[in-house]
Design goal:
The protein is built from 10 helices and 18 strands. By secondary structure, the protein is of the alpha+beta class. Strands 4, 5, 6, 7, 8, 9, 10, 11 and 16 form a 9-stranded antiparallel sheet that branches. A hairpin with a 2-residue loop joins β7 and β8.
């Protein structure tokens, strides 16, 4: 036996409109959020993973537990909760809309049954005159009133806070907006980092969540005009600051100072001051000596040829390294172009004497490591000028405006839901022997204590209105 499409759609509708599904999804979301707090995420997971066995690490990686907030299954939970909220809201909205649009008859008798004695009193005068004054009072209290004259008396109806019926839907919409913002940020946002040397610029960042260290184009250039760092007397960094410019088509559109806890946002991308460091610069200090003359010390810029002291040719600093091959310390590659003969290349080291003790002697017999490879000169590396670079964290989350909008909406929705109510009031003016009787009653969808206070207020105001007639 096959179910028709109508029954299938009804089953799906009933499943997604179930409050039980809402509770189940919220519990799952709470449990996963707790797990995401206990298990370090993203970069913080590396140190944690080293304390686990390889099998556990593989299991965590397979379920993306080290980056669960960007995992497929977490997004599915958010999507299911969003659908559930939409379906629940649509299912109950029609009933709420009918209540909002409903206009009860002013001459209903049922609300006046079992009326407390304090809600009814007598006044003197003609019934029409009393009704006119009651009508004016009701108009001052309620924007719109309904009236009806019957044999049983004259009836007046007014209401307040009808829009409070939609408070729960504002809450639903706010939660949905927050969830959409979270999904939008997860799918369309990115987290990256970049190191920019002082005086240089870049238009590319490195994505943090990419195993292959993928790069991403920003669509504009970021130029570090200046980097400055201040230290305490102990040598601890006190403050470091990057002066940044943002360029589009070589035009500077924005400038700003980037400090810790003082980010800069440009075109929806936020830049945070994260770290700093130094790298070898382009200027080196060399000492050049011969056997017969006093050594000469020269400050030379990489890539700029300099004549040799005796005009035998010219030399140039081709490359500069802060730590050649990670073990040999500061080094510079020298290229000598003599007037006659072939070009000569060799490395000079700042810690040459120390290196000769650490490594085999035969290693430095090679001409490429011999600082005296071009006779009669011997080159010594005295210093490499350092340059600062600024380490910047780069984030883009287009869902943030939606999340903030959702938080604002949820405050409004909760205020409407818990601090306002739909209050309906009926007033009846009827003949009672030689007097006129005024009866007041009302109903509210919530906050009955507040409704009682409003009834007492209305009765007292009406009594004060007719105090001269009593």
């Amino acid at each position: 036996m096959k179910l028709d499409s109508g029954k299938k759609s009804d089953i799906i509708w009933d499943i997604f409109s179930s409050v039980k599904l809402t509770l189940a999804l919220l519990i799952i979301l709470a449990v996963t959020s707790i797990a995401g707090t206990i298990i370090p995420q993203q970069e913080g997971a590396m140190e944690f993973a080293q304390r686990l066995s390889p099998g556990i690490v593989r299991l965590f990686n397979s379920f993306q537990l080290f980056d669960m907030y960007h995992s497929l299954w977490f997004r599915v939970i958010i999507a299911l909760l969003s659908i559930n909220l939409i379906v629940c809201s649509l299912k109950r909205f029609q009933v709420t809309l009918k209540l909002f649009q409903a206009l009860p008859r002013p001459d209903r008798s049922k609300p006046f049954e079992d009326l407390p004695t304090q809600n009814t009193f007598q006044v003197g005068g003609e019934i029409q005159e009393v009704s006119n004054r009651v009508a004016e009072f009701m108009k001052s209290q309620y924007k719109k009133i309904e009236t009806k004259d019957t044999k049983k008396g004259n009836f007046f109806y007014g209401s307040k806070g009808r829009y409070s019926l939609f408070g729960v839907y504002v809450v639903h919409l706010s939660v949905l907006t927050i969830l959409i913002g979270a999904i939008t940020g997860s799918l369309m946002g990115f987290e990256a980092y970049v190191n920019i040397v002082e005086g240089e610029s870049t238009d590319t960042v490195t994505l943090r969540k990419s195993r292959a260290h993928a790069h991403k184009k920003l669509g504009f250039r970021v130029h570090c005009e200046k980097f400055a760092v201040d230290f305490y007397d102990t040598g601890t960094p006190k403050e470091y600051r990057s002066e940044l410019s943002f360029l589009v088509d070589e035009k500077v559109l924005k400038k700003g100072s980037l400090l810790v806890n003082h980010p800069i946002t440009f075109r929806g991308i936020t830049f945070y001051q994260s770290s700093y460091g130094t790298i070898p610069g382009d200027r080196v200090r060399l000492k050049i000596s011969t056997h017969q003359e006093e050594p000469k010390t020269l400050d030379i810029e990489r890539g700029h040829p300099i004549p040799l002291p005796h005009e035998e040719g010219q030399f140039e600093v081709v490359e500069v390294h802060g730590n050649l091959r990670g073990m040999m310390g500061p080094a510079a590659l020298i290229s000598i172009k003599p007037k006659q003969g072939e070009e000569v290349h060799f490395w000079v080291f700042q810690n040459f004497e120390l290196l000769k003790k650490r490594f085999p002697k035969a290693m430095f017999e090679s001409s490429i490591l011999d600082p005296s490879a071009f006779k009669p000169y011997t080159f010594y590396l005295k210093e490499i000028q350092s340059k600062y670079y600024t380490g910047i964290q780069v984030n883009k989350d287009p869902g943030v405006p939606l999340v903030w909008t959702g938080f604002f909406m949820i405050v409004v929705g909760l205020f409407i839901t818990f601090f306002t109510s739909h209050r309906r009031v009926w007033v009846r003016v009827s003949k009672d022997n030689n007097k006129v009787r005024i009866s007041v009653t009302g109903k509210a969808n919530k906050n009955p204590v507040g409704m009682e206070r409003e009834m007492d207020y209305l009765v007292q105001k009406l009594k004060d209105l007719f105090v001269t007639e009593r």
